[in-house]
Specification:
The structure is a homodimer. The first copy, chain A, is an alpha/beta fold. Chain A is 33% helix and 22% strand. The first copy, chain A, contains 13 helices and 21 strands. The mean pLDDT of chain A is 95.
Chain lengths: 450, 450
């Protein structure tokens, strides 16, 4: 029997194992059920015929569940599945139609926190491997599972795990933990993710708030913050920090072709957000290039003084801005922080305190990598179509995987774009679970062959 | 007997009437005890021999208590006392050592909300008039009392009251409701107050917050606000709006002399606020001129996006700034709003919504006005010294009085600068109540004679 046929016949197993996983809460933000869920994932791996092991880094890091199958027929090629067993908090609870950890099935849907993100996605990988073992008795290549427990809080220990277990995790290709399926059921195959640098700028002036009549003499830190911010970008969003783009490169011909063929409904997008035009009046190909490869400096938050209702004449003592910079390939977060610091100093704002929260570089797999072809073919066969994307506009911890393991890394759609991940009534579509499981079988097969 | 001697002998009356007044809460912000306190003030005026009347403007405006004495000896000259019977809320209650409306006397102090601001100040005026009536049987000039009930919430109906009762309130000079006594017991004689324009600027972009990865396409309203604000002032605090200073004038020779002789301890001021230098590196006479006559554009508040702890990558839909502009003589609030609007439009920010909260022009009495001399002499005699000030750095509703009644208006110290007005444990110093009451007697006498 073909493994794909086995999947068709055994969807009940997929569903019941997913329900079991959902019913074990595992909220990393609250450290709730993490250990228990790691143990459960290990059990599910084992019962699916996959060797499993709990890896640890120290007391403060949740464990990683590691799984492995050595292929008898093809032991020189390894595919790694990266997933996570932790979930977002379920709040606000009152907005759920069913209990978030009840895993209720209604028709084609399974409702629950983590139903899709990422327990649903994890189960498709496990069940694809299991289908191979049950039918062929072997996998087309070695398989490794790296299932972490902190993705929803920014994967703070992932890089250290990768460095510590570099040899154990060594592989030739990586399937990323998530990927979207668009509203027309087309899976999006993503070859990269942008990086992120998140900083706070704090301007302090006097030791306490003052009556605003004293603004004739006491400098207002909000004014200084406004002045400093205004030196960072121009009206088109171009970042004015010296050498900010120095190590970046343009798109290759192949990347431009992919961008050009990616669908993007400008009118629908503008309607969705109620806007009339884009930053810098971008249109068409320029807008698509920006989504895939534009760097930004975004004011995620700014606050100073009195922000309640009505009027209060106060001269605040401090002003704070939170900035997120999306980084593109070539930008190193540490180097960019140094440049930001030098920029502020050179403009007379050396006293502004810079606090760095995250720094994560971008990652991008070359479209010419043979693994891309394996994934595209598998997706086309399983979903009937696919969309190739040079990079997600968002950020994920893809860079340490690509950097430490030196392997191509691709995300492939399994998550329906409107499946309410991180929101109440998150659900998984059973039809997509099936297609994705079969797609994973196909990816293993294609990858094993090449 | 001289009225001043009568005051010396009857301080117990001053104290007990003040205690009675404090014990009647009158919190305008909560509309608590306002009517009751107006009636009580009327009673105290009557029992002091002053004709009294409750004036009304409509249902929403608290009443004004009006009091009047027509002088038998000098019925052609009128002095008006402006005061208020409302007080600030007493919260936080747990920080009071005695109940805020108990009016406990401890040694030289009477504690309670309103003990100084403005019930203590009001009682000195009433008792000065009463002392004249009890001793001389007449006042040296006509006396009018205008005691409002909304000063602590910005005197929203005062201008309308002045216009409606312009004839009734007509006078030749006005004594302002408050005035400070400095830490060396020197009363400050203030000839003016700055005006204030308080506005909100609101930038709206999309219909909802977006994931900040979309900052490549969706404009960030916080950036537009920062850009817009940056066009308003230069680094020295000079306002860049066209014609902002057009109708203002410099200081006269006499005003410069006064400013020059006003004490100002720069070092102590800087130490108090923990700052090393002033805006635009001002020093000496420039700093003093700024306090008395500098216009400002102050960011009293700014907010957009996520302002909690940690990082959140959001692209906010709106950004808001609260600005207070201190106005100097010649600046008309309505005209300045028009200029601000035109400025933003001309810089490409015509979409920014401007919401005007208050607009109040500055007021300044000429130092050459004979009433200044009357007050200075009275203060010198009662307090042993005085400090003349061209204008307070702060704002008060002095302009409509000066404008509608066409009379000079002067504030004269009676409030100890550290008497915790608006704060827990507000108190009045009995020695200052006595000196101020005698000073008011003297002002009436001097004014009646000239």
């Amino acid at each position: 029997m073909r493994p794909e046929r086995y999947v068709d016949l055994h969807m009940d197993d997929v569903i019941s194992d997913l329900q079991t996983l959902i019913r074990q809460p595992s909220i990393s933000a609250k450290n709730e059920g993490i250990e228990e869920c790691a143990v459960l994932v290990g059990k599910i791996l084992k019962s699916s015929g996959i060797t499993s092991e709990i890896l640890r880094l120290g007391k403060n890091a949740p464990p990683i569940v590691y799984g492995e199958i050595i292929s008898k027929s093809n032991p020189d090629k390894t595919l790694l599945f990266y997933n996570h067993y932790d979930v977002q908090p379920a709040e606000p609870l009152e907005l759920w139609d069913h209990l978030p950890f009840e895993a209720v099935r209604v028709g084609n849907k399974i409702f629950g926190r983590g139903a899709t993100d990422d327990k649903g996605e994890l189960i498709t990988r496990i069940k694809a491997v299991s289908a191979y073992l049950k039918t062929v008795g072997d996998t087309p290549c070695n398989i490794k599972f790296v299932v972490e427990g902190e993705e929803e809080i920014g994967s703070p220990h992932m890089k250290k795990y990768l460095q510590r277990y570099e040899k154990k995790f060594s592989c030739d290709a990586i399937v990323w933990e998530f990927g979207y399926v668009d509203s027309k059921n087309r899976p999006i195959i993503g070859l990269g993710m942008k990086g992120l640098l998140f900083v706070e700028l704090l301007v302090s002036e006097s030791v306490r708030d003052a009556h605003s009549s004293l603004a004739v003499l006491i400098r207002n830190p909000a004014w200084r913050l406004v002045e400093a911010l205004n030196t960072l970008v121009d009206a088109k969003g171009h970042i004015l920090v010296k050498d900010w783009y120095k190590e970046t490169r343009g798109f290759s011909k192949k990347e431009l072709d992919i961008i050009s063929s990616e669908p993007f409904d400008e009118t629908a997008f503008k309607k969705e957000f109620g806007i009339k035009s884009f930053v810098g009046k971008k249109r068409g190909m320029d807008a698509k290039k920006a989504l895939v490869g534009g760097a930004t400096c975004n004011i995620a938050g700014i606050i100073s003084g009195y922000t309640g209702i009505g009027a209060k004449t106060v001269l605040p003592r401090q002003a704070l801005a939170k900035l997120d910079f999306r980084l593109i390939p070539g930008m190193n977060p540490e180097r960019q922080v140094k440049r930001l610091r030098a920029h502020l100093k050179s403009k007379g704002f050396g006293d502004i305190q810079i606090r760095v929260f995250h720094g994560l570089a971008a990652a991008r797999t070359q479209p010419t990598d043979p693994f891309v072809c394996n994934v595209v073919d598998a997706a086309e066969e399983s979903f009937g179509s696919s969309i190739l994307s040079v990079s997600n506009a968002g950020t994920g911890p893809m860079h340490p995987f690509v950097d430490v393991l030196g392997a191509p890394c691709i995300s492939v759609g399994s998550t329906y774009i409107f499946s309410r991940i991180h929101s109440p009534n998150e659900f998984a579509r059973i039809d997509l679970l099936k297609k994705t499981t079969k797609c994973m079988c196909k990816i293993m097969e294609n990858f094993g062959k090449c």
